[in-house]
Specification:
single chain, alpha+beta, elongated, 2 helices, 3 strands
């Protein structure tokens, strides 16, 4: 190869950088503007995980933890009545997660409308009700 043809020219480098900048300008706003939707997705995943752990607890012990025992009954053996007879030595969760906004999930057993339990996050604003990102995120089980 002749010495003048090795490597990229300045024009070629500028064209490549312009293409990269154009692609970044199209993609970055779509990715950066979604942290709140990602938090809602994490909350929904957490609720499904907690719900599965509650169902395992029920299979072992015959019933769900009481509202007073709360979700802590999934990570450490409850001492308050009703004390579970067959609580798994390793627990059902390593630790009970908090919602993506740093608040504990709300748990009640029995839940509303005949549900055996209900787990809820009050969303971004931390208040009951709301719309969109401030809306409640919940799951009920039978």
């Amino acid at each position: 190869m002749p010495a003048g043809q090795a490597g990229l020219t300045l024009i070629e480098m500028i064209v490549v950088l312009a293409i990269i900048a154009l692609v970044a300008a199209l993609i970055v706003p779509n990715v950066i503007g979604r942290p709140d939707q990602a938090r809602v997705a994490v909350a929904n995943t957490d609720l499904r995980t907690i719900s599965a752990a509650l169902k395992m607890y029920r299979l072992d012990n015959g019933d769900y933890p009481s509202t007073q025992q709360g979700l802590a009954a999934l990570s450490s053996r409850p001492t308050a009545a009703p004390v579970p007879a067959n609580w798994s030595p390793g627990g059902y969760l390593d630790q009970v997660p908090t919602d993506p906004w740093g608040r504990p999930y709300n748990y009640s057993s029995p839940g509303k409308n005949g549900a055996a339990f209900e787990i809820m996050s009050f969303g971004k604003d931390g208040e009951p009700g709301g719309e969109g990102l401030d809306g409640d995120i919940q799951i009920s089980g039978r």
